[in-house]
Amino acid sequence: MGNAATSPPPFTVLGPARQLVPVVFASPHSGQYYPADLMAATTLPELLLRRTADNFVDQLFAAAPEHGAPLLKAAYARAYLDLNREPWELDPQMFDENLPSHINATSLRVAGGLGTIPRLAADGRDIYRQKLDFTEVRQRLNRVYFPYHHSLARMIEDTQLAFGHCLLIDCHSMPSTSGLGPAPRGGDQRADIVLGDRFGATCAPELTDCVHRTLSGLGFRVQRNNPYAGGFTTYHYGRPGAGVHVLQIEINRRLYMDEIEVIPLPGMERIREAMTAVIAAVCGLPAANFETLDAAAE
Is 182 in a helix, a strand, or coil? Predict the structure, then answer.
């Protein structure tokens, strides 16, 4: 991971002095730290690796603390470690050695080159020039992945203890088309926003409806669960029957950034204002709404 003394902490939590609402925001793919060991192990330029990230998404949701909710921001690049995967979702072909039996090597994400340690960049090229050492990968997880998820789990637990329930919004962006790569190169044009709640399994429909109404009212084309129904964070933490609701938000990158150069466009301010409206809407829900939803889910 390079020099541990100069490496950033694995995440940052931005929050109010005191949490005022039962809502938590998380941005697992917006990290911008590309460690020296990653750049030494790849022939690809950093710009290409950045195209796999949810660039600027943490900025789009930056108003969360102003509305009484914390925002958990990853520091490390998604190309280095994907925090929205199972911890041991690894591709055996990336290693010379045999992997332990607890490795999940058969998921669709691994097959697509996008496991916990991604194999492929946005354009389909291999990230690494040679095989990885499993000991090094284990160290990455211990120093970055597990601290992030321990913090997220604690934030959810603390929110439940304080309010009796929790809504986690997992914040993401998506390529503008279904074709390979970050830019329009074939494939279907996607909606402006995709809301993922695992088809109602991880979040009460009323909460998803609230976000859907807010964004539709602002003129955005919103879809649910297609093509993204929610990743590891969504299905791992979402337990509506236990008072934990998780909703994934995917924002179409063409709305606010140049997908090739990875720079903001003038539309970024409109999207930031739209996400601030979403923050205000969910943070403004009366406590009685959550209590009714929790009771209905039991």
Answer: coil
Q: Is the pTM of this model over 0.90?
A: yes
Could you tell me the strand order of the sheet in which 23-27 lies? 11-14, 71-74, 23-27, 166-174, 244-252, 193-196, 222-224
Q: How far is 190 from 184, CA to CA, in rounded Å? A: 10
Rounded distance between C-alpha atoms, residue 217 and residue 164, angstroms: 30
Residue 112 CA neighbour count, 13 Å, CB half? 10
Cα 244 from Cα 136, distance rounded (Å): 34
Residues whose CB falls within 8 Å of the CB of residue 115, separated by 6 or more in sequence, listed in order: 82, 85, 89, 90, 91, 107, 109
Q: Using one digit for the tens of pLDDT, what is the confidence trace for 123-181? A: 999 999 999 999 999 999 999 999 999 999 999 999 999 999 999 999 999 999 865 44
Q: CATH code for 11-84+140-293?
A: 3.40.630.40
Looking at this protein, which amino acid is placed at residue 231?
A: G
Q: How far apart are CA 158 and CA 69, in angstroms?
A: 12
